[in-house]
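Recap from last week: sequence in, structure out.
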Amino acid sequence: MVHQKFQPVDDLLGKSHMTGLYVQACTLPYTLTGGNIQDVQNIQDSKPICYVDEHWLESYFFTDEVVEYLEGKVPHNIERAYINMGIHSETPRVHTDSGSKGDKTLLYYINEEWNKDWGGETIFLCPKCKNIEYITPFVPGRIIVFDSTTPHAARQQSFAGPKYRFTLAIKFRA
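Predicted structure tokens:
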């Protein structure tokens, strides 16, 4: 059953387009950026991210089908966009992307292949973070748009799967 607030869509991008995005994700220059926690050794965690600009998005992601799908669902102002390179040892934390009403986040699952046993789902929590409101499996090619004030987190991926879990995140400012 699909939750009314969370309506993932699959197959907006064709196979060759998905492959091109995956190749991009595998070859872009990533930098380690500060995370939001410190580990038990008081060392700030960091994660591999590659920021992409609107030109990159126009060239590699925004097909006519994607633009048509997003019409009326997101504001027109892109605040930032980046590709997350999730790794097995990462422990993603629950967070929000914005505190402003009307801001939206788009997640696109880049990997071309993903088995449900490999984890990596995205969980969405109720506003007070006491209950899980929705879980979407990591499905290659899936797009999900949600309110940026929604607490959410990626779930850790299994060592049985690929070394990297790639997601494109686009933050739209109202």
